[in-house]
Design goal:
about 40% strand, mainly beta, Immunoglobulin-like, 3 domains, 6-stranded antiparallel β-sheet, rod-shaped
Length: about 350
């Protein structure tokens, strides 16, 4: 005997429990079925490494059979608002909104995917939403710290790149250096450059000269993305003067300079000229007039024990490295190896000192 109940196009008012009872001489048997909106659940996703794929498959219980499904993600600016997820986007290739087999696939998760997701399923009775799952991502791009080492005897410089990768991050896939924003061809450099690899990210530059003056930067990447270090400048030394120290008795002035240089400065020379139109000449450090002066780097010092009325623009410091030399006058006129001149006013204390 076939006995059944047919409900055509069930609606919300058809929801409820339906029971069927059969009896014979022994007794009755009852079976029940419940018509309601779908029950949808998604297992919480564990931590996912950035750059890895992920597949999410829900569990659906529904009577009547579901007729539609829709994946949603929360609005980035409002966690309480959800919007439809476009599974036709290449990012979600392999995903499905088929109510018989819905699934969410991400081939390569990125930091932007760290959102809440859910599935909306509908049947004739109505619709319901799954629990919200949060995609928690771990891992990141490499961190890079750069500094330099100068090898004076070899006339070479190593731009040291210390690279660290966050725990549970994808391995580094590429390391390279740029010079003035252009990628350096290490293998095609004829031995000029070496290093700059995953195994040895530091860059060595042989026979450093004026042609090597430029900004250098180390970059590394993994499946998460790319990170570049701070830029490091190879160029002529930079000279900075402290404020002059004036001693009215016995009329002495002291200049102390700070040298900053990559590659390191090799030597320095204090110079003097006796007349405004003369050329600067290297000072004899043994001259009593300059007793107490030193050319030790990186803090050369000039002591002028006043014996006559030297002009304030009479002294100059010149510092050398493998790239070029830089010169700076004690009156704060800068003259570098490219003949650039920057004029500044003579400090008032120094004018008063020399006017005595």
């Amino acid at each position: 005997m076939d006995t059944y109940l047919t409900i055509h196009s069930p609606k919300s008012n058809d929801a409820g429990q339906y029971s069927f009872e059969v009896s014979n001489a022994v007794g009755p048997v009852t079976k029940s079925i419940h018509l309601s909106v779908p029950s949808v659940s998604i297992i919480e996703v564990p931590e996912v490494i950035v750059g890895n794929p992920i597949i999410t498959v829900p569990t659906i219980q529904s009577c009547p059979t579901p007729v539609s499904a829709m994946w949603q993600k929360n609005n980035r600016h409002n966690i309480e608002e959800f919007e439809r997820l476009d599974i036709n986007d290449a990012k979600y290739f392999g995903s499905s909104d088929d109510p018989d087999d819905p699934r969410l696939v991400m081939q390569k998760v990125t930091q932007e995917d760290a959102l809440y997701y859910r599935l909306i399923v509908s049947n004739g009775i109505g619709q319901s939403a799954s629990n919200n799952i949060y995609l928690k991502l771990i891992g990141g791009v490499p961190s890079l710290y750069v500094h330099h080492e100068t090898h004076i005897m070899e006339k070479s410089v190593t731009l040291v790149c210390e690279m660290t990768v966050p725990i549970n991050s994808p391995t580094v896939s590429d390391v390279f250096w740029t010079k003035d924003g252009r990628k350096i061809d290490i293998t095609g450099s004829g031995g000029k450059y070496s290093g700059g690899s995953i195994v040895n990210p530091s860059l060595s530059i042989k026979m450093v000269n004026s042609n090597d003056e430029e900004m250098y930067q180390c970059c590394a990447s993994n499946s998460v993305g790319e990170m570049c270090s701070e830029k490091i400048y190879l160029g002529p030394p930079r000279i900075e003067f402290n404020s002059p120290d004036f001693d009215a008795s016995p009329k002495r002035v002291t200049y102390i300079a700070t040298i900053k240089s990559i590659p390191v400065a090799l030597n320095a020379e204090w110079k003097v000229k006796q007349d405004r139109n003369d050329r600067f000449q290297v000072i004899d450090m043994h001259d009593p007039l300059y007793k107490g002066s030193v050319i030790a780097l990186p803090r050369p010092k000039l002591v002028v024990n006043k014996h006559k009325a030297e002009q304030v623009e009479s002294f100059q410091l010149e510092v050398f490295n493998f790239i070029a030399s830089s010169r700076r006058n004690t009156q704060d006129i800068v003259v570098d190896s490219h003949d650039a001149v920057i004029n500044k006013e003579i400090p008032v204390p120094l004018m008063k000192f020399y006017s005595k």
